[in-house]
Amino acid sequence: MKQQQATSHRPDRTSPGGPAAPGDVIDVEQAEAALVEHYPRLVRLAYLVLPAGRSRGRRVLAAHGVVQRTLPRQRASAGGLGLPAQRSGTDAAIDPGYAFVRMRVLRGALAAGRTRRRLPARPPLFPQVWGLRLFPRSGGADELALDQALSALSGPARAAFVLRDLERLSVPEVRRVLEAAGVTDPREALVEAEQAALPAGSRDRSLLESPEFDPCALQARPTDLIRRRQHGRAVLAAGVALLVSGALLGMPGDGWGPDGAAAPPYARNAAAEAALEPGRLTVTSATAWKTAARQDFAAWPARGDRIHDKALLRRALAVWARPGAGVQVSATPGTPSGPAAGPAQLLFAGVVDHAVVVLFHDGLRVVRYAETADGEGQADDTGAALDFARTDGAAADSASALVVARTQGNVRYLTAPWVTSAHLVDLLKPDAAAQPAHLDANGLTDPVPSPQAAEKCTGWPALRMGGHLLTDLGELTPTRLTYGSPRRPGEVNDPQARTAWARSACQLAAVRGRGVRAVNSWEFARQPLPGGAGTAAWLCTRAETWRGAGSRTTAQIQTPAPSGQPYATGAVTAQAEGGTACGPRSPKALSGVLWKSPAGRWWLLAAGSEQLTSISATGGVRGQAPGRLLSLPAKAGDRAELAGRLANGGRIGALR
Q1: Among 169, 289, 527, 620, which residue is least crowded by beta carbons within 10 Å?
Q2: What is the pLDDT of residues 19-38, one digit of tens each?
Q3: 3-state SS assignment for residue 25
């Protein structure tokens, strides 16, 4: 990851006299000096707090406009700036002149966010640049993910994030500054900023200080030169006005038109226009997958009865590039929702369950565009939807199907060309026969039940396709279920694997909507229970995501099922977010639980994977046992710390 030094030092006060008191007065010259000295930092702050808008170029101009309008017309009081108490040495208080200008910048940026969800179509007093489009340098995937995460926050939460992580203010200082800026609930803004899902590097300023968020380090490109020449001398004056308003601020349009529910084209360039041209879409032949070196989404042919509908494809591409305010946009965690970098691949276009659906693939993501079939071509854009799902690195086992439509608790899939049959199974009933799921000529399945429709987890539908077991977790890509060693997971075929998933399936609800690619369940130990109460199975279930980060690991114990409930859900003993436990990089596990025997006695049970040579317990229950199984008498409410020793002398702790 590229890192960049801060564009300016922290604007601490170094002049004699210490910080200003709340009653001090700020001269216009003092404010101007602070603005000139720290102009790049102030513009970066305004750029990060402003709403994302429809164009990075307009957001850049808005940030410069906010900062340039901060100078007061006369002397002003420093009261209400949210300045911290006086400090000394390296913790000297912030320059009151800078604090005054920063406060006015925050108020201006927050006011722009309150007026409308996006930047106004024609913000007043924008800096003027004729014949050029200005925009920041492009960043990497982390910068794009951070920008997407910030755009999902409210204006006060973005301000809290920037003050804390870019300005390095303490939490009390952030609250004081937000209160002075007019934020009604600074605590809520801080909580929202703290709970935001952000990429690595967001908290140490390395991303915030990158060129992606520097509105002073800009790239310039011309506007549409051919169109400008066509206006001619006869309409020179009108052409200049149109150029300024159209190229920089955008030309609002009405109705669906050729671009459907897309927003007006505020900026154009050759690459963006190529991505919007239906004729440039990649279309794979129907037999290419048979000879492809890699069977993934790139080998899928284009299918559906509307793949030649240029008007539909144009609308779908335009909405993808510039979704209008009425378009419902969703993305799995860690998935950028921006436009395509170039012409994408067409996977499907057709009518499915009273909706017109188009599926694209751009190498990194699958994109689903949908509009109501009955209202096709009308001016109301509230019937359009756009969904993104990350699919980089997909292979045959994870590129078997895509969700095309969801209606009334059912889901329909578009299957890969190498899938010749599909069967519906209920994970909670492993002994029941699988039901065939019909595939039409395009590879579309009939509607099959979704687990989201099940109440109290009385059933968990899944599909067997091409030997793989897939289930719906509420996203465009179904999740593959496997069973076995973390380094060599296998299919869920034998009775032991089916029984394990029958007693674990209901726990899949905890990872719904998290961008999960695959879930593997691994039985790492079997333990005889004290008092002859039977044998318990210890399982470790790990959900891997498409983005790598965000995995979830759960340990559970499956004791003998009660009479009449042969597939009762096991008891979760521990769970962890992230990390490598029970994964291919660290195929080891240790977990424990307090268990009450049928005779009414309490026991501390613990078990580890085969690498363990002994287990010890400390705390409320103390003891040690050789091997990888431990049973110790205990009392209700006891707490113990577990540690396992490995054959190489190393130690591991219990999953938590």
Answers
A1: 620
A2: 344 445 666 777 788 888 88
A3: strand
